[in-house]
Each structure stands twice: as structure tokens, then as C-alpha cells.
Input
Amino acid sequence: MATPPRELTQNPLKKIWMPCKNGLPEKHISQRKVCMTNCPTLIVTVGLPARGKTYISKKLTRYLNWIGVPTKEFNVGQYRRECVKIYKSFEFFRPDNEEGLKIRKHCAASALNDVRTYLSEGGQVAVFDATNTTRERRDTIMKFADLNGYKVFFVESVCDDPEVIASNIVQVKLGSPDYTDRNTDEAVEDFMKRIKCYENSYETLDEIKDRDLSYIKIMEVGSRYLVNRVLDHIQSRIVYYLMNIHIAPRSIYLCRHGESELNIKGRIGGDSGLSARGKLFAKFLGKFIQEQNIKDLKVWTSQMKRTIQTAEALGVPYEQWKALNEIDAGVCEEMMYEEIQDHYPLEFALRDQDKYRYRYPKGESYEDLVQRLEPVIMELERQENVLVICHQAVMRCLLAYFLDKTAEELPYLKCPLHTVLKLTPVAYGCKVESISLNVEAVNTHRDRPENVDVSRPPDEALLTVPAHQ
Amino acid sequence: MATDSWQEAGKTRKSHLRSCEKKSSWASYMTNSPTVIVMTGLPARGKTYMSKKLTRYLNWIGVPTKVFNLGAYRREAVKMYKSYDFFRHDNKEAMEIRKQCALVALEDVQAYLTEEGGQIAVFDATNTTRERRDLILSFAKENSYKVFFVESVCDDPDVIAANILEVKVSSPDYPERHRERVMDDFLKRIACYEVTYQPLDPDHDDKDLSFIKVINVGRRFLVNRVQDYIQSRIVYYLMNIHVHPRTIYLCRHGESQHNVLGKIGGDSELSARGKQFAHALREFIKQQKLADLKVWTSQLRRTIQTAEELGSPYEQWKILNEIDAGVCEEMTYEMIQDSYPEEFALRDQDKYHYRYPGGESYQDMVQRLEPVIMELERQGNVLVISHQAVMRCLLAYFLDKSADELPYLKCPLHTVLKLTPVAYGCKVETFYLNIEAVNTHRDRPPHRLGNACITRRSAAAVKKPWKLPPCSREEPRRGRTLAQRTNTQGDVCWMNFVCACV
Output
């Protein structure tokens, strides 16, 4: 009865051992993924307008995609804008506006259809972003989820603080397509009336009536949470994430260590010290930080010499994170690209074919890096003003999280030496300012060459290698 | 003499670094002021269960934590427990005794947090009245401690009865262990508290306090005003644990070819005996007759080959990979002794904190494995096929072993450890599957080696231009300041903190 154990073969790109048949890998790769259930999840936002639902939806979607869970948000307001080309006034949202109700119901249904398409084509989580303030609407959604075998998780945002609501309106509603031709006062007045339309029929998630649902109720902009029936791993991660984010204004500064000795020689990895120019950068970074006059700035570095040396020059306390260490290039550590091409031409080509998933032999991939950096991102969310002094691959991963870059774009993001990126959350996204501290350095950015075939000649492989000593 | 002064410098630096080192685990640095976790709730609501589990978890991730159970203090003060009458709220004499006990316990909390290097104290008592909680809040304020309440609320009589049977029947209060009598007395004891119970009120009286209310054994949670990183971790942990019966099986991969050659690390295949073990493991699992079993492996060949034999689906986790021995990968201990005798000695000095050049330490592993532990808490029956160092770390979590003991836990090949949660702890059963294998366990050497070597190194470190960030109690505890050696050139040879920590 005992079938002989399957032979193992190592996937050349990701260096994962997989069972194979007749020399070919079996389809099923049992690798640990974040979302272990086959069951897609439908996240449903709940709450009056201007309670931060879209903010939460977009942020959550960005986070889940970054950690590798294919997620997409479906904003019913968008569907409504498609349908009703010109927004006239809050009257559209009056509960006695039959036509308005019909259109809105139709839009919700249309959005749910798109959810179904998305989740059946490889999506894992769909975020259904709408007010969903009545039990009736929520029941409709749950029936839909039940029919399709989706798990449902509600995220309700409750807020009674008029200042917060007013601030929300100013920050995101005024710039909405609905109010392009209104002045501020008119827009605010109309929006307040719009909120009123929902208030009477608002049925908040109830401890008794909704005790069998899975949900998190976020109250008072995150100072209090009610969490009910978390069913699985992904829901638990979502809850943890939502409990760690905040909206206090702050800035995150990302930069690399100063130019290192190995940088100059065109070698990757290793643990070398700063070059003379690198040291100058560190000094200028110190001055820059002082000039910015940042309140309570935390400084984080990796545990590699070059970032620590850079931080030392700032003359302020800093914290070292091993998780911020540069990507481990395994057998290719301290090699030049020319040497990698020489010794490991196959590896070099595979890397160019799929730089995100490619794992160096005995090393790491960008995909591994993201997993390693997740606690850093989580703590960055909790913190306020932070300066992170790290490395090229690490900075690309962090930047991709803040700027919502895909896995394909991530490994090619430009993170030059001696340049500080200042990220400031604004509305639904992140403003980026790039500040070059005017100290020359080598370029370490290698673009994807045209020819990524394993049989390519060396000169075509090395076409995009930046100049070095 | 020059060497004397160097030795002196080395010693002071050593002790300074050692005190920093103790506090500088990756999680530990995140907390600034010490925290008092205050359990709240009627008896038999799982407070002690949560206290002990939470304490175990926090200590494992490197945050020095200790439980102060008021019941134990009361048992000290009142040598023999007579009946539930002691707990009546109109029993003035008893009330006075109980208050005194609380004050003594708080004194001990203060000693632990202020003088003994503790970072978190878990005050495990009912704390059901606002008056008692205010007492604790004033105490904390005086000492600048943060306070985080963990309230357990449960109205399911089945759960309460089960709790009483599982842990109260065997309590020192009830030496005769007569079930019905215990149940009866205990339910009356609970009734005494119910009269004066003031649950945490998030809407009015307690809206400014930081707390989590655990409702009906984790079905629902109310979380209010989480202040910092450690509180957020505590909340996350409490939200992931459950009390459903289940079993965790830990074992290593079958004997590998490198094992046979005495080489550490690498990614070799199973030996013939290793394959036999995999087969025996399959039989063992079948005999266990489990309804649902998840199987986890690392991404190294030897664990995957072992899992393949089981014939059922398994999940590969990169973070379950064996400790990275850096430059010592695939060497035998003899080769390491030959090529890196100092490293070899350093490792024996402090195996937990020692990091291989270009590799990892046990301390790094614990950080790496934390998501595995968190997911294990969420799961039901799981078999984890991993490696020696990994298994030691996981076992240390379940069996509450210190950082000192962890690297020397015995995890032989071809042996399955079956862990079953029971009462406040974990029952372990060892199953040797009767397939011979080499022994890969290296005991703690009998005496510390190379003291001269240490002082030379310490002294060398003192001369290094690279400064360490200041590490004092006034400042927020800093991150791990473990320096990493450059492996070959040695143009700047940094100090590996291990040698300072002798």
C-alpha cells in the first residue's frame, strides 16, 4: 500500500523543494502562504459617511497586497458616479427618493458582481466599501457571500466627534468629483445633509442581534475596538493591522546608508564600512535632520556596519533592527555582477526573469524580505516620526508598501544613495518628497536588461550594470 | 601593567554590556516604563490561565515578566482554608487580611519591576471592585508604571463548571478533592464576589483606562486605549489563543546525510535510517487516530522528505529552517574548533546569545519563530517537522524554559514529542520511534573556557572606534546592540557581544 515517496526537485527560481513526477514538478506547491484558506474573504465596511471607511479600505488593501494576499477594493460610490454622471445634491441620498434608491441598489449589485469575478479569477480578499448601514443591505451581502462560499468580515467605523468628521470632509470630500464646482462652504453644508440622510436608518452592528457575525467595530478613531468572532488567520491579521494604524500627522524618512567601500567596488552585500563620501553624507544627514526640526524623531538602522556608522554621525539615539539587514545574497555575497555572470550565469538570468521571487542560492528573495520586514511596517504604523536608515533592497520593499507598488515594480524602484525620501500621509495616499543631499555616490541601480534568456551572451546580461571601480 | 588595566576595562565594559544585553532583546526594547497587567474578573474565569500563558509568551520573546498570584499570598497568610465564608464581603476580618495580602503582593511587584530587572508584572487576582483597582492605579502612578487591565467575563455556566473541575478541584484549598463539595463551595465563593463586582465600564467610569475585556472565552473582545507596542502584542496574543483541546507534535526530520558525517547545517537528504524514520512516523501518526492534523515543515530538503512519506498535504515555512551557522555552515564541530577556536569557545560561553559570524543566534531564532508560535496557538492538531535548534526554541515556549536552558534541551533524532495542554501547563510525552540515529546533542561544557581570550577581546573592543549607543535605564531600552563580525578581512574586528557577557 505504501506508495514510494515522491522525488523532490528544487524550483530553480525560488529554491523551493517540490515533489515531482517524471522529473517535472507537481502542480501543487504546499508552501506556506499568508492566506491558508481556499475560501475567499469579503470584507464589508459599515458606517456613516465621513467615518474613514474608504481610508481604511484603501490602507488595508495596500497592506494585504504587500504581504502577498491578492486584494481589491470595490467602492460603491465610484459605481454610483459612473451611473449618475452629474451629482446634483444631497437630495439624491434622501431615504424617500425612490429613483435614487433604485440606482444605489443597482450600483451595489453591480459592484458585487465585480467582486465575484475578481474572487473567482485569483483574488483572495475583496473589500466592499460602502455605507452598508442597514441590516437589510448587510443581509443581502451575506446571502451573496453564502451563495458563493465567501467568508464575511465586517469593519464598522463609529465616530461621533464632530471635529474629526469635519476634518475628514475637508481632507477627502471637498476634493471628490462630486464637489468640483462647489465652494467649500456649500460642499460642507451639502455633505452634512447627506450624512443626515443615512442617520435615521443607521443600524449599527449590535452585540446581541449580530453576535454570530465576524466583525471589528472601530470606535473613536481607534481608541476603542470591539472584536467579535474572528474566524481565521487572515481575519486575525486584519484585526491586528487595524488596531495598529492611526491618523496622527507624521512623516517617515527613508534613506540608505552612506556610500560604502563595497558599493565603490561594485560588490553586493557584505558588511563594509562607509567610504569617505559616505561619511560626508552621514554628516550632511545629521545637519538635514536638525534643520527639519522634527518632533520626537525615532531613528532606526539595520545591524550592518554601514547603517550604524551613518546613524552614529547623527549624534542621536537610534535602534538597531536585524530585520532591516540587506537582502542575503547567499553564495553571491560580496560579488560583482560581472562575477555573478561568470560563476552563476543561470542564476543571473533567472533573477532577471523574476526579480521579486528569485531567491539567491542559500540566500533570500524580495518575497522573503517582505515577510521579514512585516514587523517593521507594523511598528512604523504604530509610530509617528521615524527615520529608517537601511539598504537598497530593503528600502525598495518599504517604499513599495507606502506607495502601493506591485511585486513587479518593487525590485526596480529607484533608491539611490545619498537621497532621503520623505513620506507624508495625505488624504488616501502618501506624498513623497525626494531630497538629495548633494554628495556624490556611485549608482547601484541595475535596470532589467532586454535579454533575460538563460542562453544570452554575457555582454547582453551585463548591459545594465552601473559603473564602478 | 597594561594588561591589568585592560582587564579592568574589560570587566567594567563586560558588566555594563551584560546589563544592557539582558534588556536588549528585540521585543524588550520596545517597552519603556514597566507595565503592570491587572487581571480582573470573577473566580473561575480563566484569569490565572491567561496570566500564566501570557507570562510564558512574554518571557519567551524576551520581555522579563512575572506573575503575582494573590491567592498564593492569601494561602500564606491564612494557613488553612475553611470555607467560602472567608470570601463574604461582610467578613470584616477576612477583608482586612485580603487587603494586607494585596499590599504585600504590590510591594513584591515593586521590587521586581524596580530592582530586579523585571519589565512586566502580572497581578493575578479578582480585582473586581473599583476601589481595589483604584488602589492599584495609585500604586502604579506613584512608581510610574503603565497599567493594562485584562478582564475576563463569562456567563456560560458550562465553561465555568469545566474550569472549576479542571483547576479548582486540585487546588491547595481543597485537599480532600471531593468534587461535589468543591463545586458547591466554589460556586458559593463566586457568589460572594458577584455582590460587589464592578466590571470595567468603557463608556463612563473606566473610559480612560487601557484594557481588554475578553468575553466568553474569546468569542468577543473589547479593547480600549492600547498605549504602546507591548500592549498591542498582548492584545494580539490574547486574541489568538483558545482553549479547545488539541495536540501538538514536535519532531525533527529523519537522520540526514550531514548528521551521519557530523556536519551542521546545510541542505542534505535523508540517510537510509532517516527514510525509515519517516516511514515509522507515518505509522505513528496513523495510530494517533487524529481527526484533523496539519503538517508543517521547513524549506530544507530533509524535513520535506520526511513529510512526503506521510502521504498527506503539508505546508512549508521558510522560518522553520534550521539556525543559520554562517561561516560554519556544513562544518563538523572538529572543523569549527580548528578554523574558529575563539568562536567555538564563545558559543559555549553563552549559547543563547551567541551569533555565528554571518549567521544567527538562538535569540534571533526566537524572533524568527514568533509567527509560528502565534499560528500554533490559533491552530488545532499540528505536527511540526523541524530541526534541532528550531525544536529547542519551540519546546522552550511550550515548557516555559529559560534562555539559559533552551539551547541545551534534548531533542534527539527519531523522537516525537507529544504536547497536550492541561490545566495551567503542558503535558509532554516522548515517543522514540525505535530507529537508530546518531546523537547530535552537545552538552554544556563543564567549565568556562578561555578567560584570557575573553579579556583580550574585551580589551580590543574598548579600543574600537565604533561606539555603542548609550544604554541606560533613563533612556528607552535600545534595540539589540549585538555587533556582527566581519568574517574574513578583519580590517575592523568588532566585538561579538557574547564575549562581553560571560
Chain A has a mean pLDDT of 93. Chain A touches chain B through 53 residues (CB under 8 Å). The CA atoms of residues 274 and 309 of chain A lie 7 Å apart. Chain A is about 40% helix and 15% strand.
